[in-house]
């Protein structure tokens, strides 16, 4: 075996003899007396690092020899060949600290004798498997201290071992301690305003005294992440992390803006006057997909199951309210949000009542200065302030307040949206000896969304939708000698909703029909113009409780993590309901809504239990992880559902292969189960005289009460495979997935026959209403009603790819490429019914029955982002080129011809296939443009974001979507359509007040 002798200058004969004598004495003593292999570096010599640099371990020894020639290092020639390089910062550092830093990249023994002779050799391989196994059973205690760059302790730093899902916080002295099965884990440390740091415990020489320095997350750092980062979640499936720097760079006002960073998503002009829905992994945006996406805020899912603010319950027309379509993303502001994680793949079994992934929003916890922020664009204004208070023995209190206002366009103020949100989050260490951390959060949100009546408008169409929400959450974790780590999360929310719609109708008169029960009534007429109002008052209530326990077991190189939990959710609506007023409730031959009392509708309840076992094997250069999970849900007290979920990954060096599969369910919303009555009005007799006293109408009302107990939970099946490869020059992430969503709930038209009595005039006194009487003749009239069924099916095949080349160090320039290919097949398993083309008064009207087509939507979209970061100027610029390769929609199996029809008496008549194009069915043939294939050509769009930061942490940023103002068009059905939105710009100013 060769040994390498390092010296700063040529060695004289006397020096050489002295050196040989030192080595002989050292080796003799080491052999005879068995010196300990523990780290014994305790020298006080100081080394001056003149500049920031990255060097090899050999070069570290050379630097030490150049400044202190008393040291001699003895080691095998190629020992440090594969050691990672050492990052040195300008300044003074002690020899022992410098050597610890240099040797932390491998498994070596360091022994030091007198006269500064240092022997370094590889640690011997454990040969006694039994002894090694027994050693692994022992808990390893990890102790450390977290400091800032000025060596001041940092309290309330979140210290997490993500693989075990356990963690703690630092105390006021910056100290923390954890007990782990062994040291082969990664520590993640995070604190408000500081860059997240990851520590590999296997490389630490002294686990009882780990000193960690956190740097403020400012633009003077060498590395700033301003894009969504592709990661593999603890469950071994696809997820994307979006940090605070990325949210600042896109000037995100709410959660909808953050999702533009995901592969396949565009940077849209921010418009708060329309509802925002999540659309994960689908080429077609739909309420079914959005409703199945769980938004989980600090561990508690936001429930919209009890939202019933729909204008027309029979068709689920929500007006300005997002009904049966998931969480309105405008309500999630980012004033005090630390990070967003999007689980696009298979979610953990602990997350239920979802069918299309989850979005985890994590709030900030810890002391922080006042953060005052202001966003301004041509139509949107937002201001926020946040602060983290240190309460000494009473923990930490974080508070935030935000206000937003938006108008429809810079030139008109008819459309408007305004909201304010207040949040308080308190972290309290309950009993320090029990390692018990407790969080209490309280949030208040208010929004006002609608459209005003402008004085110059002839047709009045006014809406005002107000919502005030209150949410409280109690969460935390503590250690138990029996159950292991116990976590809990109990949340409750109450939302006061009031929707008011006022329409000015000028095409009267109409017979006034206000009946709330089925029957035939005599009535008079409305004025030619009148106001029709609709009032909806709801009060959704949600209670959610979850508790789980985790245990760990270590057997040599295999780790077992067990997680078992119980969950209960309760949704109800105690609002007074839906009322139509203004003297007119005429629905004009279609099913409409009048009144519903929400508080009488049964509540939705779900009890759940779940278990997950994570098995991890770690080798020298490899890692395998298997996740096996199952979830049981008793939904709506009548459905017993099992959701198996599993994933596997295998990592060797810098290559990881992964696969996952999972099943999940989403319960029907209360408005789908209990939409309330639908009212169908039709006229039997009418006499409209010049004298209002002589006017008379005989009208019938049919009340349709749907019973939707047949509705089943939405079912989702997701499979994915992929790999992650990190060679020296690039990070590559590739995922292929197939997502099948079945039994989605939508509305399907069905035909019903209603009896229409015929009336005749018996007498007509002057100045009075005529006297009428039934003739005894009754005809049947067909009408359609909307019925909710599990008919929506969507199957999506997709590919996601991210490429992140190595940073160009000379210019500190980075590139990032995100690409998504989505192909969705969408269909409705029901049938479509259309009224035939006919002349008014023709009694031969009939209804055609048509097969619903299969729609194939394709979306191929990529984004190339250039990131130019200049740390010395605290400046970062991102230029994104959006590449729209293909957007198309085509109908498969589309037919303009019905396969059957209902005649005027409601009889169902099938049409033989050979006869469907005959002239006798010409009134049933649909327009030739009913099914039109659309496909956009390739086009691009360019977006610019610039951010500058001061030394005090204040920042100013600017964005320009469609910065070149490039607006290509394409022809569709004889007209030109615009492909890009107009140029939109915005500004942000953020102040840090310490």
Can you describe this structure?
By secondary structure, the chain is mainly beta. Helix content is 7%, strand content 52%. It is built from eight helices and 55 strands. It has a 22-stranded antiparallel beta barrel. Strands 16-17-20-21-18-19 form a six-stranded mixed beta sheet. It starts with a strand and ends with a strand.
Condensed summary:
The chain is mainly beta and 994 residues long. The chain is built from 8 helices and 55 strands.
From the structure above, extract its key features.
994 residues; mainly beta; 22-stranded antiparallel β-barrel; 8 helices; 52% strand; disordered N terminus
Computed Rg: 35 Å
What percent of residues are in strands? Answer: over 45%
- Summed up, the helix count is 8
Oligomer state equals single chain
Class from helix and strand fractions:
mainly beta
Helical proportion?
Answer: under 10%
């Amino acid at each position: 075996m060769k040994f390498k002798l390092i010296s700063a200058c040529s060695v004289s004969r006397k020096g050489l003899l002295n050196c040989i004598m030192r080595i002989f004495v050292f080796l003799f003593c080491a052999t005879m007396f068995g010196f300990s292999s523990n780290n014994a570096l305790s020298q006080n010599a100081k080394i001056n690092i003149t500049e920031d640099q990255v060097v090899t371990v050999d070069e570290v020894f050379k630097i030490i020899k150049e400044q202190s020639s008393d040291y001699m290092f003895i080691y095998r020639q190629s020992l440090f060949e594969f050691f990672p390089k050492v990052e040195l910062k300008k300044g003074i550092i002690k020899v022992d600290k410098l050597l610890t830093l240099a040797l932390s990249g491998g498994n070596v023994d360091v022994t030091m004798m007198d006269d500064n002779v240092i022997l370094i050799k590889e640690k011997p391989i454990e040969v006694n498997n039994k002894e090694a196994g027994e050693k692994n059973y022992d808990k390893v205690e990890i102790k450390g201290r977290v400091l800032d760059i000025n060596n001041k302790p940092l309290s309330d730093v979140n210290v997490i071992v993500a693989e075990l899902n356990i963690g703690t916080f630092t105390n006021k002295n910056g100290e923390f301690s954890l007990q782990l099965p062994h040291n082969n884990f990664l520590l993640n440390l995070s604190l408000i305003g500081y860059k997240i740091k990851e520590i590999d415990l296997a490389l630490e020489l002294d686990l009882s005294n780990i000193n960690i320095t956190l740097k403020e997350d400012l633009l003077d750092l060498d590395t700033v992440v301003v894009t969504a980062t592709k990661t593999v979640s603890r469950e071994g499936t696809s997820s994307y992390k979006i940090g605070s720097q990325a949210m600042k760079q896109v000037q995100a006002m709410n959660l909808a803006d953050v999702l533009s960073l995901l592969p396949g998503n565009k940077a849209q002009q921010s418009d708060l006057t329309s509802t925002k829905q999540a659309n994960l992994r689908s080429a077609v945006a739909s309420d079914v997909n959005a409703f199945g996406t769980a938004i989980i805020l600090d561990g508690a899912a936001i429930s919209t199951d009890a939202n019933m603010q729909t204008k027309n319950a029979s068709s689920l027309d929500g007006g300005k309210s997002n009904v049966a379509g998931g969480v309105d993303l405008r309500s999630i502001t980012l004033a005090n949000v630390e990070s967003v994680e999007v689980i696009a793949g298979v979610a953990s079994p602990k997350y239920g009542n979802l069918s299309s992934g989850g979005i985890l929003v994590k709030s900030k916890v810890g002391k922080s200065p006042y953060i005052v922020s202001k966003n301004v664009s041509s139509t949107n204004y937002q201001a926020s302030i946040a602060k983290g208070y240190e309460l000494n023995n009473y923990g930490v209190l974080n508070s935030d307040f935000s206000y937003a206002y938006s108008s429809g366009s810079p030139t008109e103020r008819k459309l408007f949206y305004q909201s304010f949100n207040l949040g308080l989050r308190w972290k309290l260490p309950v009993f320090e000896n029990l390692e018990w951390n407790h969080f209490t959060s309280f949030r208040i949100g208010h929004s006002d969304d609608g459209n005003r009546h402008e004085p110059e408008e002839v047709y009045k169409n006014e809406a005002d939708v107000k919502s005030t929400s209150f949410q409280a959450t109690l969460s935390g974790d503590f250690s138990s000698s029996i159950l292991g780590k116990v976590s809990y999360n109990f949340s409750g929310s109450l939302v006061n909703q009031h929707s008011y719609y006022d329409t000015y109708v000028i095409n009267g008169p109409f017979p006034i029909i206000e009946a709330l029960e089925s029957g035939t009534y005599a009535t008079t007429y409305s004025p030619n113009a009148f106001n029709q109002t609709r009032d909806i008052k709801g009060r959704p209530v949600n209670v959610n409780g979850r508790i789980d326990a985790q245990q760990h077991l270590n057997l040599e190189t295999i780790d077992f993590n067990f997680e078992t939990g119980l969950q209960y959710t309760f949704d109800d609506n105690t609002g007074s309901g839906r009322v139509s007023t203004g003297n007119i409730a005429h629905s004009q031959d279609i099913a409409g809504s009048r009144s519903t009392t929400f508080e009488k509708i049964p509540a939705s309840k779900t009890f759940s239990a779940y278990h997950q076992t994570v098995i991890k094997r770690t080798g020298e250069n490899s890692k395998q992880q298997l996740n096996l999970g199952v979830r049981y849900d008793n939904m709506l007290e009548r459905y017993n559902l099992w959701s198996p979920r599993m994933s596997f990954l295998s990592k060797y060096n810098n290559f990881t292969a992964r696969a996952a599969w999972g099943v999940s369910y989403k319960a029907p919303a209360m408005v789908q189960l209990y939409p309330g009555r639908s009212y169908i009005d039709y006229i039997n007799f009418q006499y409209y005289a010049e004298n209002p006293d002589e006017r008379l109408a005989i009208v019938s009302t049919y009340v349709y009460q749907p019973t939707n107990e047949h509705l089943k939970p939405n079912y989702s099946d997701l499979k994915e495979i992929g790999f992650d490869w990190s060679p020296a020059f690039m990070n590559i992430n590739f995922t292929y997935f197939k997502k099948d969503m079945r039994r989605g709930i939508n509305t399907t038209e069905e035909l019903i026959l209603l009896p229409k009595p015929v009336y005749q005039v018996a007498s007509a006194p002057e100045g009075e209403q005529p006297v009428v009487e039934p003739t005894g003749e009754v005809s049947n009239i067909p009408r359609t009603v909307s019925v909710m069924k599990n008919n929506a099916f969507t199957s999506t095949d997709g590919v996601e790819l991210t490429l992140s080349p190595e940073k160009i160090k000379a210019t500190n320039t980075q590139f990032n490429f995100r690409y998504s290919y989505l192909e969705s097949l969408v269909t409705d398993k029901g049938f479509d019914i259309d009224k035939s083309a006919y002349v008014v008064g023709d009694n031969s009207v009939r209804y055609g029955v048509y097969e619903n087509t299969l729609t194939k939507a394709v979306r191929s979209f990529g984004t190339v982002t250039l990131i130019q970061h200049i740390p010395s100027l605290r400046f970062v610029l991102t230029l994104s080129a959006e590449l729209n390769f293909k957007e198309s929609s085509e109908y498969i199996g589309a037919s303009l011809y019905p396969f059957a029809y209902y005649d005027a008496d409601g009889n169902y008549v099938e049409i033989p296939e050979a006869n469907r194009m005959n002239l006798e069915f010409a009134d049933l043939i649909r327009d030739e443009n009913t099914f039109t294939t659309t496909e956009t050509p390739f086009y691009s769009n360019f977006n610019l974001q610039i951010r500058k930061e001061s030394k005090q942490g204040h920042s100013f940023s600017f964005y320009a979507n469609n910065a070149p103002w490039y607006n290509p068009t394409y022809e569709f059905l004889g007209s030109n359509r615009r492909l890009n939105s107009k140029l939109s710009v915005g500004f942000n100013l953020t102040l840090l007040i310490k």
